[in-house]
Amino acid sequence: MNFDLMIIGGGTAGVLAAIKAASKGIRVAIIEQQNVCGGNATLSGLAEFNAATFLKQPLYHGFEQMIFDRLIERQAGQYYYQLPMSSDKDIKVDRLRYNPEVLKLILEELLAENHVRVFYNTDFQAAKKEAAGFTVQATNFGTSYQFSTKYLIDGTSNCLVATSLGCQTQPLAAKNIAVSTQLFRLSNVDLPTLQAFIASGKLSDVISEAFEKNIIQGRILAFAPIPGTNDTSVNVTRTNVDYRDPAQLSQGLHETRSQINRIVGFIKKNIPGCREAYLSNIAPILGVRASVKLDGREMLHLDDIKNMCQFEDCIGVGCYPVDIHDPVTKKVHFLKIDGVYQIPLGVCLPRENLNLAVIGKAISTDMETFAATRVMPIVMNVGESIGAIFAYAVKNSKDVYTLTPTEVKKIMVQEDLVNQTSEVN
Fold first, then answer.
1. Which residues pair with 48 in a beta bridge?
2. What angle, rounded to 10 degrees, do the helices at 405-415 and 376-395 form?
3. CA torsion, points 258, 262, 263, 266, in degrees to nearest 10?
């Protein structure tokens, strides 16, 4: 099977790259190991896009904004502005809360509308550089398949494709892996009462009590009411495991599921609005806050986003603060960023001369910057921009790594994918 562009990994970054590239008339395929696209946005139980707007102002365009709009049109999405973080009420972020089940359908619609070929339940095995592009090896329920493509995008979140091709990556020491979370959903919640309690500022006292009694393992208990329902997603469980080790990953899933029973009982007893609630869903995957990152042509550093550095080859923007979940202290450390920062193309390109880009959480950043750029609105923005750039390269028979900043900027302006705002609060 032959394609102009293949994307390994159908998370939000991969989907946005695929539909953008395919909308330009090129043949695009996604290899996805799960049976649905969207990654953490649809499977982890997380039900909010953090920093989807900046101080109530739209920040993103293109298919990303289309997804936001479709969620709202179907009463499955709602904007909340300057909401305080449960672990630090002084840090406030605009959010779009949404129903993950409706998001699954919207992503499927966009993939079909733009004729993206998706291979579900398919595991990436290896990629090899060929004279005319790449061959990709994959398996589906034990059967091997081979694909050919001119251009390749790594959306695996862990540089699996880049590593297979011998590209340089940044090592990820097990001791530096942030805590992982298994989210769950509570139904039959009195949401107005719950939200009034959260707004009162009293939740922090309940969090402290739960932590001191060993009910929760970290100083966070976050609720995300799901629009169009009487449900809320709950972000609270914690495990310190190396998700790359199958034995540890299995142990981590056991640990987080074993925490849920006592947490639900505590919530029903101590959180107003939750007395009649019941457990209705446990996410099938861990929400992992770690990634093997690319060692790219450029690296985005903390000073770059703190100082809101401008890049001529800017392909994405963000305003989410630095958000580090410390595996030792169990606390969340924030660094507020007072504006909109930019992300250059070079953080997605390997040092090697390959028509390959890395997107999602695995772009080339330092550890602190990763704690900001890993959130979904940013990876969606970068993914869509990379899709536009690769479509341009395919249609003009160009090597991606030779594109000039001027060419990149022209594509971004034509496609209206990058908000050039760099305002300060």
1. 97
2. 110
3. 180
What's the CATH number for 2-175+289-415?
Answer: 3.50.50.60
Q: Whole-model pTM?
A: 0.94
pLDDT at res. 419: 66
Considering the segment(s) 179-282 as one domain, its CATH architecture is: 2-Layer Sandwich (3.30)
Q: Which residues contact 401 (CB under 8 A, 6 or more apart)?
A: 297, 349, 353, 354, 355
| Cβ atoms of 45 and 107 closer than 8 Å | no
Low-confidence ranges of the chain (pLDDT < 50): 329, 421-425
Which of 103, 119, 145 has its CA nearest to residue 32? Answer: 119
Please state the domain extents for the chain: 2-175+289-415, 179-282
* Structure-token pair, residue 10: 């159908």
Give the pLDDT score at 87. 62
Nearest to 86 by CA among 234, 291, 268: 234
| Residue-level pLDDT at 325 | 57
